[in-house]
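Extended Data, panel c. Modelled sequence:
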Amino acid sequence: MDCRTAESLLHAYFDDELDLSASIEIERHLESCPACAARLARERSLRARISASSLRFAGPSDLPGKIAATLGVRSVDLNPHYTSARPARRSVPRQALWVASCAGALFALVSVALISRPPSAESLLAQQIRDGHVRSLMAEHLADVASSDRHRVKPWFAGKLDFSPWVEDLSQEGFSLVGGRLDYLDNRQAAALVFKRREHVINLFLWPSDNDRSEPLRPLRENGYQIVHWRDSGMTCWAVSDINAEELREFAELVRSRIASSTPPAQPK
């Protein structure tokens, strides 16, 4: 685990929100990284100070008199539930109460409908893509075949998948091929191609589309990670990274154009 990944998981670890394997990974990193261990110690110290501090503030004794003088009343009780300067009670028409009750009920029904709405298929798949990317970084298992040579990476997938994935090194354009591995997404096996943009890892997931319909690039953001997905040339493509949205879109456009111009195009066997 590197420091960037540890930093993104530090708050979840501090709040006991990680599963056992993730907790073990980050604890191993903290044992060997003084900087991240110091960051965790600062978080613990800050929470301890906040818990021990009193957040109440006592106003000066003459504050009620000053407020009363400003308001032109005899006295003011600073109890939030009571004030001696109470306005006269006004009667509310029964019809207005009925309308308010109906409006409140309607608002509650709409709120429940919005909250209980199940996530879309796109949203669920985006979470799988994000999780696959994070797992590859945490387990330090970016590639089953580590190479920048497409003639080594592409043949490695033969016999392991029911399709032949597009593979190409894009170093000349600033995106270096690192290798490839197998993954499982959307209830099927997928090819995961790993690229690097400077020190940032990009995972590109590929699998055959269930139809030949093309779809434009669609950017998403999932828990701090940039995602772009599209469909073209008979392939479903998802790219995910922590680089900025513009660079990931540049990468996606480049990959899309290369897949479309490849001969023969990547198709299911």
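The two ends are 37 Å apart (CA to CA). This feature is highlighted in the accompanying rendering.
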